[in-house]
Fold this sequence. Notes:
Layout: H1 12-27, H2 32-41, H3 48-63, H4 65-71, H5 80-93, H6 108-117, H7 120-123, H8 128-138, H9 140-149, E1 157-160, H10 167-175, E2 181-183, E3 190-193, H11 203-206, E4 210-212, H12 215-224, E5 231-234, H13 241-249, E6 255-260, H14 263-275, E7 281-285, H15 288-293, E8 298-304, H16 325-342, E9 346-356, H17 365-374, E10 378-386, H18 388-391, E11 396-403
Parallel strand pairs: 5-6, 5-8, 6-7, 8-9
Antiparallel strand pairs: 1-3, 1-4, 2-3, 9-11, 10-11
Amino acid sequence: MLLILKKVRLHSTLLQGIEEALDRVFGQGKKSDQVVPAILKAHPKWGSRDRNFVAENTYEIVRNKRLILYCLDYDGPLDSGTLKKMTAAWLILKEQQDESDFFTGLDPAILRERVRVADPAVRFSVPDALNEYMIAELGTERWYRELEAMSTPAEVYLRVNLNRISREKLREALLKREMETETVEGVRAALRLLKRANLTATDEFRKGMFEIQDAGSQLIGGFLNPVPGSMVVDACAGAGGKALHLADLMQNKGQILAMDVEAAKLQELQNRAVRNKVSIIQTALVSDAVIQEYRGKADYLLLDVPCSGSGVIRRNPDAKEKLTPEFMEEIREVQQHILQNYSTMLKPEGKMVYATCSLLPSENRGQVDRFMEENKGFVLVEDRQVWPSETGFDGFYMALITRE
């Protein structure tokens, strides 16, 4: 749970950077994965070690909020003084404190003892209601196993655009920049970065040789596995990570319609497609008219639906506070609506993948079973649950369905 790093000199500007980020997350309700890049961008003079220190500790404090407050025996407003104490307590638990006044008033022995006696919900910093909900769906053993796996910092994975460069040639190019990677068994285009680095500043990234994408997410494109020249619909494309992967699998031959409800995300996808030199992706805002226009036309259909995100909470730790039973019920209705309505775009004998980044059976196989019961002419070929504890990847579910 605790990532112990070598001690670093604790410059006040770095500590202030963490506190500023925490204030934006806890005080202003912003997402940590948006806040941290903004903080780093505002301090271009920080070196890679400083940037990593601020980013990792911010994410970890957000991820372990409940545990830290429990160790401090505090249950009040998160004002600037409290955020400073939270930062200091976390660095003590990681054995990164120095002799400065920043740590005055905190007893390391007391903090570590409270970690030792904390129950699992506190130790892994999940709200009691969410903890009970997940245990009811997954069982205590499975939930705590996955929760422990997701309490560690997320690995950085690359997806190599194999139509542009081979994995080995990209590894060699990055190694010349002192960025060491290793191949990932069972994920043909994936590389794991062994030490964090600013990948987006490399010429290889700017030239579209690779994307940053979790290895578990990469499995979804391979599960659909569209052939070159086919017509593919990515109906919940977002910023297009999976659409770009599908285009690479198709050797940039055929047609991909990428749909989403947010125009800004589709614009980001278009920008990424230009960088990746992908020409087969068209974008469209979701509407009944578009769904009707493409009715029965898709050879392949990807439904990467909105979900609880319970499989990716280590990347989005602030989401734990928002996963209520009411939200879960609402999101399941959205998922079933998408399955029922968007599936009409699939051709007879076409292939469809229903996917989530969730661990919950009610969002995954449960939704597929309900769809199959209510829609004749569809056949479940296979499905797969990717468990963080077994793979080290984020948690994903995928079901391959064909239309007779």
